[in-house]
């Protein structure tokens, strides 16, 4: 991608479930970004999708008309680069492709439909830029979107856990809306439903002590403003902290109000008013789980995270290692959940990366592919938790079902395939999981699976006998020079039995 210079304009368009938003920013002298303009338009995308699974033609027309205005803003500001994303409202609609194509044809905007893990990655990037996450021992970040709630745990700055539940403020309101007129205690019904949906997350966090609970998204900014206006606390000077009791008191005040009463009492729009109660309830459930005395409200947005990511790429600022550390940390958490043999997995990971790094001239793959190999190495045995005899197939299924922060659906598909072929099977066109890949992706999977297979072979005993690995190429032979203090005859035998696939894929014979 072409580099940009100081003074250039970049932009992000977020096609959300409840609002269409655009942020236009300028690249500053110190390589930071300065927001020049934010614009927002309401949309019924989420209402359509969460109620009917499809976006109506009328909503599509309204969306395209509003986005034409955003496209004109891009021209007015002479925007050099932009990124347009869509989230759960379009992502979960059955006519997603039609909507994205109509947006492209009518507005000229190319929209990328990101998955929930990518959405979480951008949001946490924005929070990381605005909060010192490494300053505290353990932090819980709760992000409420229109379609979901996401909980992430940071320990000393490293992401340890990240999970999502589909109970966002708008989805919750639309899902349970028909019950509102059938009960006198609608908030209690909503709370029970939320706690049921948060069961998996609750089991992971309820016994942990958090030094800080950070809330983002939803209507938390509105909640912050309401409490600040009432109590005149001066949040701007206090770091946006809300005390637990203030939050609970606001919940008690509005729990029996109608949307109109909420709207007029607090001077907010009806669209915000109808989402205020579900947003408060979701966060209230987290307060109960964690027993936090107060909560810090983060006022960052998804758009900011995308802007930071886009500016890093365009300015060629290398923060890749920081992001990869978060990804790998969360991947280890997944592995531990499926009770992997950590010593064996760490050995296979190190050997695989060593082979990758020492054979770059052969495979010519890059850092992204190296990350694929690393993740596949850590998770290659998770399938044993379900079925030891066919664990490689189960590993594929488990990895495909994960929501690993920062990874796209394509990334997960490739990693799952690499893990599947680390053992007995080799890739075949008759395997649906392999046949659906592009030719380029098939080659990537085969190369990395061949590397992983040899790495696994060198620890068949699970005793980590090999202390050092050096590769030396001599014409069409790649010699594996191994250092070990114990007898490795079993590893040598297994290596030979698994070497044919490596030779076929990379065109060079591995030998010990």
UniProtKB/TrEMBL annotation:
Ppx/GppA phosphatase N-terminal domain segment(s): 39-311
Single Gene Ontology MF annotation: pyrophosphatase activity
Superkingdom of the organism of origin: Bacteria
Domain Ppx/GppA phosphatase C-terminal as annotated: residue spans: 330-478
InterPro entries: ATPase_NBD (IPR043129), GppA/Ppx_hydrolase (IPR050273), Ppx_GppA_C (IPR048950), Ppx_GppA_N (IPR003695)
Family stated for the protein in its record: Belongs to the GppA/Ppx family.
Protein name: Exopolyphosphatase
Species of provenance: Clostridium drakei
